[in-house]
Design brief:
Blueprint (H helix, E strand, L loop, with lengths): L4 H11 L3 E2 L14 H7 L6 E5 L6 E9 L9 H6 L5 E7 L1 H50 L18 H53 L6 H37 L3 E4 H12 L7 E5 L6 E4 L1 H18 L5 E9 L2 E9 L30 H4 L7 H11 L3 E6 L3 E9 L7 E2 L1
Parallel strand pairs: 1-2, 6-8
Antiparallel strand pairs: 2-3, 3-4, 5-7, 5-12, 8-9, 9-11, 10-11
Helix pairs in contact: 1-4, 4-5, 5-6, 6-10, 8-10
């Protein structure tokens, strides 16, 4: 049947500029006109698509004009001037079948497009739902990890995958682990401080009580005994001052590390000079070195590395029996440089080796500490800040500290990145 209004309109939109809307020719017209006829007279073929506006038979039509003969001199100026024209064969027919075919093609294209759009929308919705579910799970895990009082009670779940949300969950879990470790440290800090402060405060309090008993208690005043009480009180006061000085030193060092300038220097030469200057003060031990002849260049602060050596050597002297060797070794391991301080004495417990570099952690066991230090040094409080300061210096240099047991004692080491030889000087 004839095309519907919508099919005719669709055909008209698809044909666009190629579609001509012509009125029906007069019943007794002597000649017809059109661009297809002009093209045929010029020797070409140009089909003409038309939308008939005939009320009796509306629809689309196509007309083609074909030249039957080509006059002599066609296309020349003479032919154009004389007006010679070749006869034409004009064929015109309905285009309803073409219109229906185009309509079916458009419908199929529309159906396929809608199907593809629906499939794409379904995939995007599934991805968005999965993404939202992972985010909600991470949110619930983060909320449950922290109690109402701010304490970390659990670690957030680590989501599987290699996308950004999985990386975010891993970062949050690592952050919560560090925060929980810090909270545990703060929780034990008060106990550690009270343990360190209890002894000197007890010494001062008991000495003052004894002096007060002699003065106000009616006892016979003994100057020698009073002097002994005063010495004990003064000794406790000195220990308190050392504790506060050590804590202040650690706090100042953390601030000073930020602005400390770095330069490239020979680590082996620094250790060699350090041992030469330190040996006279360590007469009770043998301070030896194992350093390669070639320069071992690192980038850092020589003053801070010397301070780190002070902490490691002091720790070694605390545990090394008198007359034993304390060895300072410098070596290369791949693209790293390793500085080690090894001493004889009680071995380190591997289960607590990592805790030795935390603040307020001291490993002083009865009967296992070396006796090579002077009595004044032996009376100093041990807050466990020496190795903590060494760890801060190592981290400022991009290195790491480690502690391990040997067959005869203990070994503490620093590992740094090696700099290029010949780059001496400040940076």
């Amino acid at each position: 049947g004839p095309p519907s209004f919508w099919q005719s309109l669709l055909f008209e939109r698809l044909a666009g500029a190629a579609l001509s809307v012509l009125p029906p020719p007069a019943p007794f017209a002597a000649r017809i006109h059109g661009p297809d006829l002009d093209a045929a007279r010029a020797g070409g073929i140009a089909p003409l698509w038309m939308m008939a506006r005939n009320a009796e038979k509306p629809g689309a039509r196509v007309r083609v004009a074909l030249p039957l003969a080509r006059p002599a001199g066609a296309g020349s100026n003479e032919t154009a001037n004389t007006g010679n024209q070749s006869p034409l064969l004009v064929v015109e027919r309905d285009a309803d079948a073409l219109l229906v075919l185009a309509s079916d093609a458009v419908l199929r294209l529309t159906a396929v497009s809608l199907l593809i759009f629906a499939a794409t929308a379904a995939v995007l919705l599934a991805f968005a739902w999965r993404l939202s579910a992972r985010i909600r799970r991470l949110q619930r895990s983060a909320e449950n990890a922290v109690a109402d009082d701010g304490k970390v009670v659990a670690a957030p779940v680590r989501l599987r995958g290699s996308d950004e949300i999985a990386a975010l969950s891993a970062s949050m879990a690592s952050l919560m682990d560090r925060l929980r470790t810090h909270q545990q440290y703060l929780g034990t800090l008060a106990d550690r401080l009270s343990h360190e402060l209890r002894t000197p405060l007890t010494m001062i309090g008991s000495s003052l009580d004894n002096l007060s008993g002699q003065v106000d208690g009616g006892e016979r005043f003994d100057p020698q005994q009073a002097r002994l009480y005063l010495e004990r009180a003064e000794q406790g006061n000195r220990r308190l001052n050392r504790i506060f000085r050590a804590m202040s030193q650690a706090a100042r060092l953390e601030e000073a590390l930020i602005d400390e300038p770095f330069e490239c220097f020979d680590l082996g030469g620094l250790v060699r000079d350090y041992c030469a200057a330190r040996r006279p003060a360590c007469a009770s031990h043998r301070l030896e070195t194992d350093i390669p002849e070639q320069a071992v260049v690192v980038r850092g602060s020589p003053d801070l590395i010397a301070q780190l050596l002070d902490k490691l050597v002091d720790n070694a002297l605390d545990f090394a029996p008198p007359g034993t060797q304390v060895l300072l070794r410098v070596g290369r391991v791949g693209d790293k440089v390793r500085l080690e301080v090894e001493n004889e004495g009680p071995p380190i417990d591997p289960s607590t080796a990592a805790e030795l570099f935390e603040p307020m952690v001291s490993w002083r066991r009865s009967g296992k500490r070396g006796s090579g230090r002077s009595p004044a040094d032996a009376d100093q409080p041990h807050l466990g800040l020496g190795l903590f300061i060494a760890r801060l210096i190592a981290e400022r240099h991009g290195g790491s500290m480690r502690a391990e047991a040997t067959s005869t004692g203990s070994r503490f080491g620093l590992e740094l990145s090696r700099a290029e030889p010949g780059n001496h000087g400040p940076l």
